[in-house]
Queue: 2 jobs
Job 1
Amino acid sequence: MGKASYRLFIIAFFAILAGSAFSLARPVQVWANDYSGNISSSQFAAGEGVTITGNTNLHINSSVTVHSIDINDNCTLTITGDPGKTLTTTYSITQYNSSGNLTVNSGTINSGGIAVNNLIISGGTITAHEDFGISAYTITISGKNTVINATGDNGYGIQAHDDINISGGKITATGTEGGILSAFKDVTISGNNTVVNATSAEKNGILADNILSISGGKVTAQGNWCGIATENGDMTISGSNTVVSAKSSVSPAVNSNHRLTIDPPLTVTKPAGGGIGGRGGSKFIATVAGGQDAATDVVIKGPVAKSDAGSDSDDESESEKPAVVNKDAIAILKITGFPYGTFFAKQEQGLAAKAAFAASLPAGYKSAFTFNAITNGKSPDNTLKKGSFTLVIPAEFRKAGRTFAITYLDKNGKATTLYDTDNDPNTITVAVNFEGYAFELIYKD
């Protein structure tokens, strides 16, 4: 769907909220400038709503139902609440025209829908269910205890005109038009405790017009078109504990209309042998790395990814940390046959290994760097390494006419040199069958 269509959806949505929920004849309480206080059921007559005409701090200390909350231009409503107390709005929490803001720090809110200018959520439990679940110009969500359930019966679960930034919480977004959408900017998801579930029966689970960046947490997205996608910008997936699961029906499950990057040690674990491929200007996860057949069921994760996100701590325990620093991980385009979670990382070798590599250099070849295979997520070992892998040549070693080979040492120090079996000058593909872990990338001009 193009930008013009996105804009029509957003304009129509705000027009509907402004013209339907709040045009109904009803009693209204007006909270003027700098109101600060509690809210209780005794304050409201049946069907009474609230209009915010000044910056307002509201604390939910009693469960209460109101017709709706209307936030005037240039006003901010900030909500906190006691455990077990719920603010329910029969219709929506919305801005009067286009610049009413909402901040939620704690409390429980059950709303017919939320449509504001800038939305900031750092805590609490929020349920929003209407034609559109949650809509705002910008959306920022954080806090490990934050819980959001947003449903759009005829639109998006969560949508923003500009940026959506999610760095914590458990977020579920479901919509016919899409689960999560940034119509004109970026979607950024981070944080080890973050859990995002986005679903659309008709279109995309998660769609960013520009950049989609996932650097932490557990992200599950399913759409009829794509699970996760970008319209015009890059997609980057990184973070050793990140887990991305994406499904689609008619298009690639993971699709970028620009660049697609998966940072080591993350790899495509489903489909087996899958990797980055593409057609034309699009990059997507293909059934075979480098191929043109799109995968519709994709899992991307690393060797030390947690089985589930959402722990009480944002920090990895020592047992979950790989011994090899992630910055030394080597980009692998494809790997088959190795144990699940295997990755490769640059590592300087000991004196004996250095001597064995030096003695085995074929005539005219030079050493680029040495590296280890890590099969258990922690440290190298001498277990059987049997399979093939395609290593991406680092940019600093690429040169026209240069050829590459890989030498490995078995557990007895015997060196074997393998030569490239693919036709891409920027990669090298080899098959191995040995007990050991040490490798060397070598080249000849």
Job 2
Amino acid sequence: MFDKYFSETFKRGLKRKICRTKDKALRFFSRSFMKTRIKTGELKRQIVQIPRSIANGRTWLKAVITDHYNGFKANAGEVIHAGKAEVRQAMSTTKGKGKVIGVAAPAAGILLVCIFFVATAPYGITADGEKVEQPWVVKAGKEEVVVVEDKQDGQKVIEKVKEHYCSREAEVKEVVIEPGVDVDTKELERFEDPVKVSDVDKAVETIVKANEGEDPVMVVSTVEEVVNEKEISYDTEVKKSSKYEEGTVKVAEEGEKGVKEVTSIVKKENGEVIDSKVIGEKVTKKPEAKVVIKGTKISKTGAKVASYALQFVGNPYVWGGTSLTNGADCSGFTLSVYSHFGISLPHSAAAQRSYGKAVSYGDARPGDLFFYPHHVAIYIGGGQIVHASTSSTGIIVGNAGYRPISCIRRLL
């Protein structure tokens, strides 16, 4: 019944070589299975471990051969069951015991081959030290990228890599990976070190890091519809008021920025934006203008008059003129300066002497009018005056005592 499993040459060798001693049997098996590279001592230990009873031996051989030797396609139960009756009959006589060796020895040889293939079978190993008999690999094109425990983990890795490069707040329109990715069984080589098997998160981390270089293992292209909020600047509205003096600025109402939603189509490669196009805008909150009030009321103080008059130093002197920029004579200059503060004066130095009240030189303040023979000026303090002097000098600042002072008048 073992004819289909063992050649005639092998069986004849058993009858000649085994005889009745275990040592000769061991040497024969060692030579017969030399290709398995199992030493005689190892072979001996395996045979000694074979259960002595027929029932236990049948169960043990069937479990080992069926569960651990993928290369042995036949059902071990078929072999052992077919020889069960013959083995029992042979064990009942002394002569038959020799025949039992003819049955047990080939079975032991098969067991040793199984042990060899199991012991040297390649495998993967996880970071926790767990053995993975058949790992899977995630490929980008033909290139192997990461090794995982099973096909399901490989598919999870691909999905998580896609998620990594997509914005959470965006609507993903398209995701394309180039070169194409796939999950396949990992081809293992016998006698090589176990391959390292990554969990899903570690595998994703490895791929993302590999994509950061100049030569990424894959390019994940995404097209997303992104909605962002952007601020809308507010305008400033200026209102004039005579309630406040000129130069006064007050904020009546604080401005408030508006908000708008901007919808864009964004294209990325490995998370980097390569193109963005706005396809729509929607105002969700209108901006509110800032209201500023500027005072127009003119402050009627002598210092203000003096300060205003000094702005026109350097402009020309023109006989009979009243323009502070294009030219004025002495009384025309004082007339136009005080006109700015709402006080009207005649266009005559002699006539202006009758306006205001007289003050002494010791009590003079900026803005007072200093009169000289046929001339008038504005006092600016510190013994200085500003006046439209002559056609050759124009409007200048000078010493208040450059000529005898006829009188001083204060209008404010």
